[in-house]
Specification:
By secondary structure, the chain is α+β, with helices and mostly antiparallel strands. About 30% of the residues lie in helices and about 35% in strands. It has nine helices and 15 strands. Strands 1-2-3-4-5-6-15-9-14-13-12-11-10 form a 13-stranded mixed beta sheet, sandwiched between helices. It has a two-stranded antiparallel sheet with strand order 7-8. The chain is globular. The relative contact order is 0.15.
Length: about 375
């Protein structure tokens, strides 16, 4: 189950750890150390845990599933945990790619520990015939200091600070910046007057469509059609030069996602636009909420199917879901979302609703080919 790799850094080892079935299991000590590093990282970077998975969520996620294999590594220096690494290996699509992530405790940075962790992850990925490595780095908006030099993304939309530690690390190890996403936050509840105004404008263009929705579980008679929409989510949103294949979703995959969310303490609300004459699902958006962070709601996927664009359906489904927040999660005070910088249409919808930028994600890639 585990593999060790000892470094030229005296006393440093990088070892794959077992992901427990239960966070309270006896063998969960290593995994809790991994999660503690993640918690400390988020508190140090953001000052809160709004973007951090709970322990229960992390256990379920890192167990992996039939669609993606997932591995967790701990770095120890003289027996003390000083860093972690994760490796994700898609199994259904994108089977030549691997996702890598490196984290080093703040007190142990600039000693070559991150380099060693990445070396182990890439070695493992190569052993599984992966030739393209993907990495994501989320950071607060405050790091984009006005006037500072930026590394422009290959997408041509946005950049990251050229002198930041994460940028230097990625470039040093041969990664290129493919895309930048804007992380935005909206205070809720949104004023009803604004929602009514935006809804009236959208409705003028949306004749022949109705909005329906559900909580946690897609109705059985809609799940196959909903799965088709979710498949489009992986091909119809901007991915710059990341070169990912489309994901194939079916009812089984939808049910797996729903059950995993619920098991991890995550509830969801989905709003869908349906074409009246054909019954075809034309657009959807998803909100999720964790009881562990009751003030925060996450706006996940939003998609309008290509043949139904131009009817303001993205705005309509977002308004429908935002209206449900106070009913479903009365403690919520904010909604958070992410959009590729080149996705100007969806960004414009969010700006009209009142979202404000709060952070950015650099999306990096390294290709061996």
């Amino acid at each position: 189950m585990s593999s060790s790799n000892f470094s030229a850094v005296a006393g440093l080892s990088v070892e794959r750890i077992q992901v427990p079935k239960d966070p309270d299991a006896i063998m969960a000590t290593d995994f809790r150390a991994f999660h503690d590093l993640d918690v400390a990282h988020h508190l140090d970077l953001w000052g809160n845990l709004d973007r951090c998975s709970t322990l229960a969520e992390a256990v379920l996620f890192w167990q992996g599933n039939e669609y993606e294999e997932r591995h967790v590594f701990l770095a120890r220096l003289d027996g003390s945990v000083v860093g972690s690494g994760t490796l994700t290996l898609p199994l259904s699509e994108n089977t030549t790619t691997a996702g890598v992530d490196v984290r080093v405790d703040a007190a142990y940075r600039r000693r070559g520990i991150g380099t060693k962790i990445l070396e182990v992850l890439e070695q493992q990925a190569r052993g599984r015939n992966r030739v393209s490595f993907d990495a994501f780095c989320s950071e607060p908006l405050g790091l984009l200091i006005q006037g500072s030099e930026l590394l422009e993304a290959k997408s041509g939309a946005g950049g990251v600070p050229l002198d930041s530690a994460s940028t230097r690390f990625a470039l040093h190890h041969g990664y290129s910046l493919e895309q930048v996403e804007t992380n935005s936050t909206l205070a809720v509840p949104v004023g009803e007057a604004l929602l009514q105004e935006l809804e009236a404008q959208a409705t003028q263009r949306a004749a022949g469509y109705g909005v329906i929705g559900w909580r946690n579980h897609c109705p059985d008679d809609l799940v196959e059609a909903f799965a088709k929409l979710k498949s489009l989510m992986s091909t119809e949103v901007p991915i710059a030069g990341l070169g990912w294949e489309g994901e194939e979703w079916d009812a089984t995959r939808v049910r797996h996602e729903e059950s995993t969310w619920l098991a991890g303490g995550v509830s969801s609300s989905v709003a869908v636009a349906r074409h009246d004459s054909t019954g075809e699902l034309a657009a959807y958006t998803t909100l999720t909420h964790r009881e562990a962070t009751p003030g925060m709601v996450y706006q996940e996927d939003t998609l309008v199917a290509p043949r139904h664009r131009g009817h303001r359906l993205g705005m309509l489904v977002k308004i429908a879901n935002l209206r449900r927040i106070q009913e479903l999660w009365p403690a919520a005070t904010s909604v958070m979302t992410w959009n590729a910088n080149e996705n100007q249409h969806m960004l414009a919808i969010n700006i009209a609703l009142g979202f404000k930028p709060s952070g950015f994600d650099g999306e990096w890639q390294k290709r061996l080919e």
